[in-house]
Structures are given as C-alpha cells and as structure tokens.
Specification:
The complex is a heterodimer of chains A (192) and B (583).
Chain A lengths: L7 E4 L10 E9 L4 H11 L4 E8 L5 E9 L2 H13 L3 E6 L5 E11 L7 H11 L3 E3 L6 E7 L1 H15 E13 L15
Antiparallel strand pairs in A: 2-4, 2-5, 3-4, 6-8, 6-9, 7-8
Chain B lengths: L20 E2 H11 L4 E4 L6 H6 L6 E4 L3 H15 L3 E5 L3 H4 L2 H9 L4 E7 L15 H5 L5 E4 L6 H13 L5 E7 H5 L1 E2 L25 H10 L3 E5 L1 H5 L3 H11 L3 E3 L14 E4 L6 H9 L2 E5 L5 H4 L10 E6 L11 E6 L2 H11 L7 H24 L7 H11 L5 E4 L3 H9 L8 E2 L10 H11 L5 E6 H7 L3 H6 L4 E7 L4 H9 L15 H8 L3 E4 L5 H10 L4 E6 L9 E2 L8 E2 L5
Parallel strand pairs in B: 2-3, 2-4, 4-5, 5-7, 6-7, 9-10, 9-12, 10-11, 12-13, 13-14, 15-16, 15-17, 17-18, 18-20, 19-20
Antiparallel strand pairs in B: 1-8, 21-22
Classes of the chains: A alpha+beta (192), B alpha/beta (583).
C-alpha cells in the first residue's frame, strides 16, 4: 500500500519481470474535473495499457474511488504508483494485488434467443455459473447481467459465445480490501 | 458563487469576507501576500484585467520578449533566491510558449507559479480566438495545473499554487484564469494556511530520521565510502549540514550537475563533478567505492551511464524526499524517503568523529592529478594561441572570485562551465540539467540577476543556445538588468559536432551555424560588447564587461574543433569513458 509504505525501501536490481502480472489498483481521489486525465495520463506516459478503469463516488462526499486493472512489470508498476501518489488530486494509492481483497465486475450481454432443444437450459447454466440473471426477456430479446469476478465472467462468456453472443458491455472491475482499514499518515489524511 | 465540493474532513473555506474587489486584484494581492516581488510576463487580451491593476501593487513587472523567456526568468529567479518565481502569459499562444519553461522547471524540481489567462467561461470549449486547453497541455510538465472557474476561489487557488510549488519536492504550478473570473468581484479573503485544501499534497515526514541508524552503521563499516550529492541538498538548504557530515565521517563528496555548489570545490573532501562529462577521478571513485550514498539526486542516466555496470562494488544508498525516485534507475540496497536536510541532521547526531580515511582519499587525490592534467590538455587548450572554452570559463571564475551567479546553457558550454568555473557556494550555478533546454541561459540569468542583485550574474552560452532566446537582449536593456553574457562562440552546435566527430564517423551535418556579428548586434541594442579571439585578450574584456553598469556581452571566438573530455558514450558505463586529446 503506497500511502502507508515505510520510509525505508530496498529495490533490488533485476531484469524487468516478463510475466506482466495483472494488478488491481485502487486510488482514492478528489472528485474534480481533470483527475481522471491526470491518472490516465501518467499511465499512458509510462506505456501502461489499462485493462479496465472505473470511477465512482464513495461514502465520503468530494472523494471518488478509481479501480484500475492493469498489466505490467511489478517494479515498473510500483514506481508508477509512487508517481501517482504525487498527483495533487490523488489522496491514496493501493495495489490490492498484495492484500486480501474482493473484486467484482458487471457485464451486460445480449444473446441469440435459444432455438428449442436444450439451448435454453445450456444458456441458463452458463449464466448461473457467473451469477448471471436474465433481464427484460419480455420483448423477445435475451439480455442478461453477469456479476462475478472478471475471470468468472471471462469463463461465462466463453460458454455463451457458441450459444450466440450478440452484444457485450463490461463495466470494469471494482474492488475492495477485505482486511481492516489502515490509517494513512502520509497525507495527513486519516480517512483511509 | 458555489464553491467546489470539498472533502468533508477539510476545513470549510473561511466565512470571513473582505471588501469586494475584482479577480485580477485578488490575484495580485495574493501574489504579494505569497511573497512575490518580481514577475515576468507578456500581456494579451485575456490577462489585460491584471495589467489594468498591476500598478496598484508592489510588484515589479518585467516585460519579456517571449513567454518562454518569462518562464525561464521566473525559474532563474527561483533558483538564485530559493523563492518562487512568477510568470504571466495570455491565453493560446502565450500560454503555450510557457511550456518549455514549465517542463524545464519540472525536470529540475524548481518551484514556480505560472499564471495564464483564458477566454471567458462562456466561450471555453468553443474554439474562441486564442483559446487553448493549456491545463491539458501543461499536465505532464507541471507539478499541478488547474483552471480557476470561480472568482471566490481566486485567493485560495493562488495560495494553494504557491504551497504546492514549494512544498516537498518543488515544481512548477500553472493556474489558468478565464478572463471573466479576473473581471468579476469577490469578497473572498486570502486564506489562512490551515484553510488550504490540499489533502493529496505529499508532505515529507519531518524531524528525526530513524533510518539514519542503519546508514551510520554502513558508513562506519565502509572502507571507501562516497557521497553523491544532488540538487535536493540545496533545495533543502542543507549544504552546511552536508559539509559537517562529510567532515565528521571523512567521506568525500561528489556532486551532480545541479549539485554544483553543495560543497566548496576547494574543500579537501569535495571530490567534484561526476557523470557523462564529469571528472575521471570522480567517476573512478564511484566505480571503486564500497558505499555510495546518493542524497537528493535522481541517479539519472547522465550520472550512471549503463546502470548494470554502475558502482559495481558499492552498497547503494538513495535518500530522496520523493518516494518514486527510490529504485527508479539503479538497484537500491537502502532507500530512505526523507528531506535531505533532515537526513543529514539525523546522521550528524549519530556519527562519531571518524579517523581520517587516508588511503581512500589519497587514492582519489592520485586519480585527480592524472584526471586534471589530462583533461586540461584534452580540452584543446594546448593548441597554440587558439582560444579554448575552458580557459575562458576559468578566467571568468578567477575574475569574479568564484562568487558570481553563473547560468549556463546546454551543450559543451554547460559542461565547460560545470568543470572549470570553480564553484564555492550554493545557488550560484543555474543550468537546465534534466530537460537540457537550449536557450535557457540568457533569460534565466535575467531572473537570477533580479532575484540576487547583490551578486554579479554571468550567462555562459554557446552561439546556438544564444540564438534561441536572444530576443531577451531587449528586455535586458529596457530594465537595465546587469547580466554579463559570455558567448562561447565556435560557430558550431559544438556538442552536435562532437557527437558527429566521435560517434557518427565525422559525418558533420547541420553542426555549422551561421550567426550574426554579435558585437554589431549588441550595438543595435545599445549593449556594450567586445570580441576576443586570443587567450591574451580574455582578461581585459572580462574586466571591461564587469565595469558595465547594465548588460554586457563578450563574443569569445573559440577553437571550433574543441571537444569536452572525458566523455561517456551512449550505452556505455562510467568505467568506459573516452579521454581525448592528450595522447
């Protein structure tokens, strides 16, 4: 967690990590025009490709939470997070990958109507596996929402694709730590 | 007017009110309250409300000839004084012309506030005349940039801009004011410090640094320790502490380009300037030391060269106020996030007086004898009767008793200035180290001369960089700013020529540079000027230029083939330097 990182650090030499692990970064930011620009601009300047980025309000007025799913070299990412921490409108930055957390995503899908047989059963089974639920089937279309981890959604989509996936909209991951909240002293901001 | 939504744990803005005044007056009032005395600007439609009231405030406005010059002048003012320089520009092209200066200040952690006008709020986003999204353009090259959309926010925005610019790791801040925000009235008072809303501003933890225990132990155990001190030491105003730590621990101190002035170069523990064109003995010390303590430096590529071969025998320590610098460029065995001054004070409290490290210091001294002898010759000074740049810089240093502010440009002139002036004190050497902005010297010297008028100010600049911002000669004349300009004129882009000679097989292209007759040019501006072509003319023209009451220029016609040695080639390391000329 960047905001509470110790003053003492050791950074070993080493070749860039070729694996480019997926990281889920959570940033608490001031809700102001331009904040998203600052955050995404920094990531762009370091050539990070953002897998997903969500922004929403928090329980505290004036503060928003960004959840950024991103792939990158661990060391490179740690450094860019420290740079993000410098942005005036960024209050805190946490790499959730290193701590217990829950991560969920919402996806909306439109499907081909099942053409009899066990089509409908297979479709419902695929949806169930990813916490899916049919919505507005009344107009004859088959739309569903999936709420699950991004990996579960990926798997559900694999199952749904052969059954006829017409359209897909994904919201991007949101995530939250599942450990006790820590207090950040770094920014003089006790509201972590 | 509604205020921005505030995070709820922040103090609400003051309920106090003051007599209403227009936004432009609130801007000027805030500048004065934040300590500004001199501002560098260029008027235009959207900032005219400020110019309309400027006379009412104790602010000296210097009318520059191009906004880039204004930005560099504000930067020079900051660096020479340790304060916060201010630049003003109008919307569109005026604002965009600041960008090079903002990026220069950003790379070198120089505090500065830039104020731009923009089109009235109702026209924003409509491609109005001279409209540009300057905040969008400035974001990556500033510490912070924001538009002030509400007259009631003006005092707070200016106060916050100064606080951001000078706190922690300093940097430039841009504030954009739509014209009508400058024209409408507000009763908002100047905020008290506790009313600033900056919950996301990183403020270093101040006070004792417990991690200094570990560093003190490393120093005690080391046989060949070396401090590499950067700009951060001067930003923290900690050069005295650095000297005391060096003396207590008997550790020699090398410096980066912007770390020039951290130690008096004649001090027995001052190793000297390190890096790509640094002294061989210093680079050897880096490669041979068993403990390298970087304080307030970035370990940037001009210091390290190939990082995998950098300081191979050393435990590497990195102290910086900015966490994101730790481990960014080199492996770091011990990184400490702290203000350089706090760390040095903490070390001083812990360090016992060390016994002399005679063997290590004698080794460096031995290397130094070779390095200085060889380099002086290698620089081309041996060419019979021809004028060499190192000689010119050396003579300026001697004539001014090494007490002048020296502002160098970029390229060979910068390296000669760094190597041969002989700096004694902090805040006396100004240069665009990170961004390498040609054209920096003359306008920055202008700001430095106004900020620190008690010191003589010299700009050392090549004929290339001089021609990039020489329009500021008129500013120097109009405000009688006493900058002495030494043009190291080799009728070449000298560093380009040097690279083409050494790396590109003497395939010279676009390195030869036609320039005006500088003495006649100065005559046209009303600036006294001299030309020197031989070594025996140098002292006399320097003396003449020093006697001029206002600006003065000397055109030094140099040996055009002179190179700066030693030189680290691209992709190579500090152990693999080219030493030319002396064989």
């Amino acid at each position: 967690m960047m905001a509470t990182a110790p003053r003492r650090q050791t950074v070993p030499a080493g070749e860039p990590d070729a694996e480019h692990r997926r990281h889920v970064v959570s940033a608490l930011v001031v809700d102001r025009p331009g904040t998203l620009n600052r955050v995404s601009g920094l990531l762009r300047a370091r050539s990070f490709n953002i897998e997903s980025l969500t922004v929403g309000t928090t329980h505290e007025p004036g503060k928003s939470r960004m959840t950024i799913a991103i792939r990158g070299d661990d060391g490179h990412l740690r450094q860019v997070l420290a740079q993000l921490e410098r942005v005036i409108d960024v209050l805190e930055v946490h790499d959730l990958t290193t701590v217990p957390h829950v991560e969920l995503e919402l996806a909306l899908v439109e499907l081909e109507p099942p053409d009899g047989g066990d089509g409908e059963a297979r479709l419902r089974a695929a949806l169930d596996a990813a916490g899916g639920e049919l919505i507005t089937p009344a107009d004859g279309s088959w739309r569903a929402r999936l709420t699950a981890t991004p990996t579960e959604i990926d798997r559900a989509l694999e199952a749904l694709r052969p059954l006829g996936l017409r359209r897909l909209v994904r919201a991007g991951a949101v995530a939250m730590t599942t450990t006790a909240q820590t207090t950040s002293t770094e920014n003089g901001d006790p509201s972590a | 007017m509604t205020a921005l939504r505030l995070p709820d744990d922040q103090p609400t803005p003051s309920a106090r009110t003051v007599a209403p005044r227009i936004g432009a007056r609130a801007v000027c009032e805030a500048l004065v309250r934040e300590g500004a005395t001199t501002i560098f600007g260029y008027p235009g439609g959207t900032v005219l409300p400020i110019y309309d009231v400027l006379r009412e405030f104790p602010l000296r406005h210097i009318l520059v000839r191009h906004e880039q010059g204004g930005a560099h002048a504000a930067d020079g003012f900051s660096r020479a004084t340790g304060g916060v320089g201010v630049a003003i520009a109008t919307s569109g092209p005026g604002a965009i012309n600041l960008v090079t200066g903002l990026a220069t200040a950003m790379m070198d952690s120089v505090p500065m506030v830039a104020i731009t006008g923009n089109v009235p709020r109702a026209l924003l986003g409509k491609d109005a005349f001279q409209e540009t999204d300057i905040v969008g353009i400035a974001l990556p090259v500033t510490k912070h940039a924001t538009v002030v959309m509400d007259p009631d926010e003006v005092p707070l925005a200016v106060a916050e801009a100064f606080e951001i610019a000078r706190s922690g790791r300093p940097g430039p801040v841009l504030l954009d004011f739509p014209k009508d925000v400058l024209q409408l009235e507000t009763s908002a008072p100047h905020p008290e410090p506790y009313e600033l809303r900056l919950p996301g501003l990183l403020r270093p933890v101040r006070g004792d640094v417990p991690e200094a225990d570990e560093l003190a132990e490393l120093i005690a155990r080391a046989e060949r320790p070396l401090i590499l001190a950067g700009h951060g030491v001067q930003i923290a105003d900690a050069t005295d502490l650095l000297r005391q730590v060096a003396e207590r621990s008997e550790v020699p101190v090398a410096h980066t380009l912007l770390g020039i002035g951290n130690m008096d170069e004649t001090h027995r523990l001052s190793a000297g300037y390190a890096g790509m064109h640094g002294w061989m003995h210093v680079n050897k010390a880096i490669q041979q030391c068993d403990l390298l303590i970087g304080i307030g430096c970035r370990y940037d590529d001009r210091i390290t060269g190939k990082t995998s071969t950098f300081a191979p025998r050393a435990t590497i320590v990195h102290v910086d106020v900015d966490r994101s610098e730790i481990g960014k460029n080199v492996r770091t065995d011990l990184g400490i996030v702290a203000d350089a001054g706090d760390l040095l004070a903490a070390l001083l409290n812990r360090l016992p007086q060390s016994a002399p490290r005679s063997a290590w210091l004698e080794q460096i001294a031995e290397w130094r004898v070779v390095s200085e002898a060889r380099s002086w010759h290698g620089s081309g000074a041996w060419r019979e009767g021809r004028l060499s740049a190192d000689y010119v810089v050396d003579r300026i240093g001697e004539a001014t008793n090494h007490a002048a502010t020296l502002v160098s440009d970029v390229g060979q002139n910068q390296m000669w200035a760094a190597r041969y002036f002989g700096f004694r004190k902090p805040f006396h050497h100004l240069s665009s180290g990170g961004l390498g902005t040609m054209g920096y010297a003359v306008p920055a010297a202008m700001g430095a001369a106004l900020g620190a008028p008690e010191r003589e100010t010299w700009a050392v600049v090549g004929d290339g960089g001089f021609q990039m911002t020489m329009q500021e000669l008129a500013t120097l004349v109009q405000d009688q700013i006493p900058v002495r300009i030494a043009v190291l004129n080799n009728h070449r882009l000298g560093m380009i020529r040097q690279w083409q000679e050494i790396i590109y097989d003497e395939n010279y292209h676009s390195a030869e540079l036609l320039g005006p007759d500088l003495v006649r040019l100065c005559e046209a501006y009303g600036i006294p000027a001299w030309r020197a072509t031989k070594p025996d003319e140098v002292d006399a023209v320097i003396a003449e230029a020093r006697r001029a009451p206002g600006p003065a220029l000397i055109d030094f016609h140099l040996d055009e083939a002179q190179n700066v040695y030693p030189m680290m080639l691209p992709g190579k390391g500090l152990s693999d330097m080219v030493e030319g000329g002396a064989e």
